[in-house]
Amino acid sequence: ETGVTQTPRHLVMGMTNKKSLKCEQHLGHNAMYWYKQSAKKPLELMFVYSLEERVENNSVPSRFSPECPNSSHLFLHLHTLQPEDSALYLCASSQRAHYNSPLHFGNGTRLTVT
Amino acid sequence: DQQVKQNSPSLSVQEGRISILNCDYTNSMFDYFLWYKKYPAEGPTFLISISSIKDKNEDGRFTVFLNKSAKHLSLHIVPSQPGDSAVYFCAASARDGNQFYFGTGTSLTVIP
């Protein structure tokens, strides 16, 4: 397995459910990210982790809870979501959390909240 | 307010011709610029980047041009191939941060 892998690829959940998105990177990178892509909008940064420490949290609602147990794994725990949270959630990694370290993305999880 | 803008949602080009994708930005502190390519059902793939100390960077068929005074970035693909059909995103970052700001993308169709 190479690159950045995300599971599941698709997820449908009700507003009262609790679910988790999983991301794993096989690139030996030290930084990992969660991005959200909504229709017709630019990618929005949600969270940044550098060496398992959260370094950026872009005013994301508390119903999204990230977890980074080690530099290769990243989770996004979801609970009591709203229909407007339906979007493509992309995980990315980079060699370091630095302005000139390009991101490498996974294929995303398409989330639908009903 | 969006700091990185791609004003053309779509572009169609004949195979073999040049594709030019444009991007404008508003933040003069941006120091590093990137282009990503995205196929349907896949994540964006890093294509090419340029630092603000340069005005051109070339990698095979792909060349990125940076005009700092105009706050404008462009990606040239020559010659265009059908496999280049994808959505292209530009992104920018500032030296004092670790966040990339993305445009909304331009969908390129290369017609055989």
Key attributes of the depicted protein:
heterodimer; A: 114 residues; mainly beta; four-stranded antiparallel sheet; 11 strands; 0% helix; globular; B: 112 residues; six-stranded mixed sheet; five-stranded antiparallel sheet; 56% strand
Task: Briefly summarize what is shown.
Chain A has strands at residues 4-7, 10-13, 18-25, 31-37, 44-50, 53-57, 64-70, 73-79, 87-94, 104-105, 109-113. Chain A is an all-beta fold. Helix content of chain B is 0%, strand content 56%.
Structure description:
The complex is a heterodimer of chains A (114) and B (112). Chain A is mainly beta and 114 residues long. Helices cover 0% and strands 56% of the residues of chain A. Chain A has no helices and 11 strands. In chain A, strand 7 (64-70) and strand 8 form a beta hairpin. Chain B has 112 residues and is an all-beta fold. The radius of gyration of chain B is 13 Å and the shape is globular. At the A-B interface, strand 5 and strand 10 of A face strand 4, strand 5, strand 9 and strand 10 of B.
The total of beta strands of chain B comes to: 11
Rounded mean pLDDT score of chain A: 92
The largest chain-to-chain contact, stated as pair and per-chain residue counts, equals:
A-B, 26 and 27 residues
- Number of E-state strands of chain A: 11
Q: How many helical elements of chain A?
A: 0
The helicity of chain B comes to: under 10%
Structural class category of chain A: mainly beta
**Low-pLDDT regions of chain A:** none
Oligomer: heterodimer
Mean pLDDT of chain B equals: 95
**What share of residues of chain A is helical?**
under 10%
Order of helices and strands of chain B: EEEEEEEEEEE
End-to-end distance of chain B, in Å?
38 Å
Rg for CA atoms of chain B: 13 Å
Radius of gyration of CA atoms of chain A, rounded to a whole number: 13 Å
Q: What does the overall shape of chain B look like?
A: globular
H/I helix tally of chain B: 0
Overall 3D shape of chain A: globular
